[in-house]
Design brief:
CATH topology of the largest domain: Methylamine Dehydrogenase, Chain H
Mean pLDDT: 81
Order of helices and strands: HEEEEEEEEEEEEEEEEEEEEEEEEHH
Distance between the termini: 51 Å
Strand content: 25-35%
CATH superfamily of the largest domain: YVTN repeat-like/Quinoprotein amine dehydrogenase
CATH class of the largest domain: Mainly Beta
Shape: elongated
Strand order of the largest sheet: 1-24-23-22
Number of strands: 24
Number of helices: 3
Helix content: under 10%
Radius of gyration: 21 Å
Low-confidence stretches: 1-20, 28-32
């Protein structure tokens, strides 16, 4: 069991390093094994949990060290974790064959809570942030809802065309489900009905194995896919775009877990096949501010013009050109305004 520690170690990118972790995924190793789930204590962000093929591990120092917390688990293949936002010592774990387990002592001990859960292969869990007694479980047989902290469950699948649910996420008004081939589905009535929300997703990106919502901007959410990497939506799933800078190895595009710290929502964590965990710190881009010193100089403006003309690569202004953007007249005008008026 102790060998599993090498599969799930998590290191956080330093925000003080010039490039590492700033708008680019940065690996801190190690490799081997699979991290299925990540969870961050909302009241104590230095406390992290990971679900792996070898059970649940907990760190109280931002991933510098880990210990197994598996007492009471009958299935150590833990595919997901969820923390009660109102009582962070209460956690839920979904397993690959034995259903849902609940802990009320920060993982110190676990007990099964499966009454009415007709499918024991649980791949997703979500807790309603406005009513933490309400839970949702994603299984091979669709979505199940509990209104009593897991004591009993009932199916809520109207509108789903893919019942193999691998990911769930919820904000106070919208519930999302990621499926293994059908992409993302969205419900605005607590799972009463579902509609597909897949514009911009296709191919492997329709195999959605992880979802995360920005706690400070709930209209922004992220999808981790089985071969397409990470996708971002800024309009509640209305459309999606890839966000994979730094995930430059094929196996890292198989993203099975995503997590965002509530106190630092600009930092997103992703767990990939092979055991690697990546972090990215997302910062607002000031057009033309190549070195992120919050001012645009003449030299930086010239760099933008040369990029637009094709005589210089975008890497000449790494922080002043949004990922995937084309330097056109509109971006140059923005850079000129930022030079004259300062970065907002």
């Amino acid at each position: 069991m102790f060998g599993v520690l090498n599969w799930a170690v998590l290191f956080v990118a330093s925000v003080y390093t010039a490039q590492a972790g700033i708008n680019v995924w940065t690996s801190h190793g190690p490799y081997g094994g699979t991290v299925h789930a990540l969870a961050i204590d909302p009241s104590t962000p230095s406390t992290l949990y990971v679900g792996t093929d070898g059970g649940v591990f907990r760190s109280t120092n931002r991933g510098s060290s880990w210990s197994g917390v598996n007492t009471g688990l009958s299935d150590f293949n833990v595919h997901l974790l969820a923390i009660d936002p109102s009582t962070p010592s209460t956690l839920y774990a979904g397993t690959d064959g034995d259903g849902v387990f609940r802990s009320t002592d920060s993982g110190g001990s676990w007990s099964a809570v499966n009454t009415g859960l007709n499918n024991p292969y649980v791949f997703a869990l979500a807790i309603d942030p406005s009513t933490p007694t309400t839970l949702y479980a994603g299984t091979d047989g669709g979505v199940f809802q509990s209104i009593n902290r897991g004591s009993s469950w009932s199916a809520v699948n109207t509108g789903l065309t893919d019942f193999n649910v691998r990911a769930l996420a919820i904000d106070p008004s919208t519930l999302y489900a990621g499926t293994d081939g059908g992409g993302v589905f969205r419900s605005t009535d607590s799972g009463g009905s579902w509609n597909a929300a897949n514009t911009g997703l296709g191919g492997n990106a329709l195999e959605v194995f992880a979802l995360a919502i920005d706690p400070s901007t709930p209209s922004t959410l992220y999808a981790g896919t089985n071969g397409g990497g990470v996708f971002q939506s800024t309009n509640r799933g209305g459309n999606w775009s890839a966000a994979n800078t730094g995930l430059n190895v094929l196996e890292y595009l198989y993203v099975g877990a995503l997590a965002i710290a509530s106190t630092t929502p600009t930092t997103l964590y992703a767990g990939a096949v092979g055991g690697a965990v990546f972090s990215i710190q997302q910062v607002a881009v000031c057009g033309g501010d190549c070195n992120m010193d919050e001012q645009v100089t003449v030299d930086e403006l010239l760099a933008m013009v040369n990029i637009a003309l094709g005589s210089t690569q975008p890497s000449a202004c790494p922080n002043g050109v949004p990922n995937g953007a084309t330097v056109d007249i509109a971006l140059i005008i923005q850079a000129v305004n930022n030079a004259l008026n300062g970065c907002a």
